[in-house]
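call fold(seq) -> C-alpha cells
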Amino acid sequence: MRTTDIRYIVLHCSATRSTQDYSPEALEHDHRGRGFRGIGYHYYVRRSGEVIPCRPLDQIGAHVRGYNACSWGVCYEGGLDSAGRPADTRTPKQRASLLRLLRQLKGYAPQAHILGHRDLSPDRNGDGRITSEEWLKSCPCLEAETEYRTLNDL
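ret:
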C-alpha cells in the first residue's frame, strides 16, 4: 500500500467494557480466531495512552470490509460502559495519544479522511448520508468526523 492510496483513517473501538482490560495479546488471539493473520488494525491505543503498532502501514489491514485496501485502522481499548452499552470511554491519555497519532498519520497521507467504522456502513436508504439507523455497529462509539474535523480540514 502506498500512502497515496489511503483515502480513510478509520477509528475503531475494541468493544470492551471500560472496566475490562483488553491486552494486545487478547486482541491478537481474537483476531486470529476470526481468521486474520494477526491484529487487523495498524495501531491499538491502550487506556494508558500507550500506542501499540500492529500492522505496518504498507500492509493492508483487516478492519473494515470493502475499505481495507484504501485505509489505515486505529483502534482504542474500550467503547462500552461498565454495563456493556456503547459509550465513548476514552481516557484523557487515550484522547491525547489518539490526537498525536492521527495527526502523524495525516502527515503521511494528508488526503485521508478521518472517520469512524460506523461511518462506512452502507447507505441503505440511498440519501447520501449514513445515519444511526443504518449503522452496522456503533464502533467507535463517538462522532469521529466531528471530533477530528480540524485534522480533516488540513
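Helices lie at 24-33, 92-108, 144-147, 149-152.
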